[in-house]
Amino acid sequence: MAYLITKENIKNLLTDLIKLKAVFAPKKDAEDTVLFGKLSSSSEWHGDALLTHTTAKDKVYLQSETFFKIKRNKSGVTIEDGPEPEETVIFGCRPCDARGFDIIGKLFNWSNFVDEYYTKRIAKTTIICISCEKPESTCFCTSFTKGSPVNETGSDVLLTNIKDGKYLAESITDKGRKLIGDNSKYFTEASKADEEAKVTFKAEAEKKIAKKLDLAEVKRKLEPAFESVYWDTVHLPCVKCGACTFVCPTCYCFDITEKAFDNINSVRVRSWDTCMNELFTRMAGGVNPRTDTKKRFRQRFMHKFNYHVDNFKEELCTGCGRCIKACPVSIDIRKVIEEIR
Amino acid sequence: MDKELQEIIKKLLAEKKVDWAIGYEKAYDELSTRPAFVQDANDTARLIFNKYCINNLGLYLTKFKKNKLAVVCKGCDIATVFELIKEKQFSRENVVVIGVACEGVLDKKTGKQLEKCENCRVKQPKGADFTVGTGKDSAAPKNFLDVVEFEKKSSKEKAEFWNRQFEKCIRCYACRNVCPVCYCPDCFANRTMPEYLNKNVDAEENKLFHMIRMQHVFGRCTDCKACDTACPVNIPLTLLTKKLAKDAKELFNYESGADMDVLPPLSTYNEADSESDIL
Q1: Is the domain of B151 the same as that of B228?
Q2: Which residue of A has its CA nearest to B189?
Q3: Is the Cβ–Cβ distance between A141 and A170 less than 8 Å?
Q4: What is the pTM of this model?
Q5: Cβ contact (<8 Å) for A332 and B202?
Q6: ipTM of the complex as predicted
Q7: What range does the domain containing B51 cover?
């Protein structure tokens, strides 16, 4: 079902939501960094930037998630669970960010395994996504089967700016329908013409994305390329920081560590980890199967475009292009996978 | 200029004077460049130099210790090369420094010229083996006005400012990994036994990381701004590195990479040394 909402009413809707839930939306700070921050007023929403510097991933899959705390007190030792998630709205993310939740959601519910921390949080999160009007030179979402500047996968509500200040609002999931139902005073019913305007919007936006990769071909080339000499030189500029993986909407690797304050009081935390880090594969005793920086570099591409496709029939990438922009030495993921030999 | 640069490197590679040449090439759009590694004399056509060549290629010296290298350096990057040679991380004979005249470089994220370029006195590179182009040095010396301004703030204001910055930090370690003088093979942040730094990412832990890193690079940091421009969330690390440069200058009259014969202040001891940092 599609509705219309004006920009003014979006702000009113935000004002109402802020009173009830934790609302995260792009916010700009004094250093011009745009990040998903908790809104205290609707005027803080910065809607001009296409992409935030980091993704909204960390609002559901926290960079550091406390599993439990062990505390000693007078009556003995107690184990206290980490904080319960609160009702959350992620507002103003992009289709590539939203699709990231769909991709890692499958991973965290793989086979019979359910990751309760992720699942609990995503169940309490409503995602309101905004279609991209002006994709940038680093965008390549259209290379993916489901990727598009107006794709709804992963979103609960998708907003598309079809004419000046008027947004087409589509409810995608039950959570989305509930949100629109609860706030129906801000929405009006959309006409057939409005829905058709989205088709034009889509065509216009997709035209701006110049780069389209043949990912089936990439997969075919990657499979036998594990020992290829290609990796010997392509990794050289890479400095092996984790910027690319930490700004990625789909990278999900983590490490579980304990922080001990004394011999009893401690806290167990799950934190994001990155395959670019030497520690990532270092085992107890010091053995490391991936000491070589080349091997770590190769792993990132192999995982995203080869192994993950084997397991989930889709790439571990949404084409947001953040890794390209965040890379201190401007390594282009598109170029690396395209030139594999 | 690019042609001249390519010819020099072509000759060095063809005559087998160096194993690798490290320069710049165009990256994903007109505003971005990336480090280029060239081994073949016929592969030099992709090398360029322009105002978007922001990376400090001195970084790669410590990663190619066994090779003879030719490195394209802006005037400011040469200070890094000298600093590393001084710290015995690389021998002078193994590196051919190709200095390029520079009119200032732009940050790819903001499109603005870097602050360090305003009062740059090495636009015309000094101490290089080959020099390409001519640059006009700034008449005014480097100033520390922004640091002086920041120092005037109260402790509370300073703490608020830095807490806000370190809350943004995602501990991707881009700042550390692009830092030419952060070459420890086993960084304290990666140690697990004992564990100096927990993996838990929060403002406190992040602050600890940055403060320890700053201590470690004092008197060695050439204020090249590599960490500042690499930060994916724009933490103004330049304020910290500039403060280091200011302190080194004021307390020890030392400028990193400037003079090959003077040792870094923390590598030497003199009874007259400042003790202002001892609590």
Answers
A1: yes
A2: A279
A3: no
A4: 0.92
A5: no
A6: 0.91
A7: 2-132
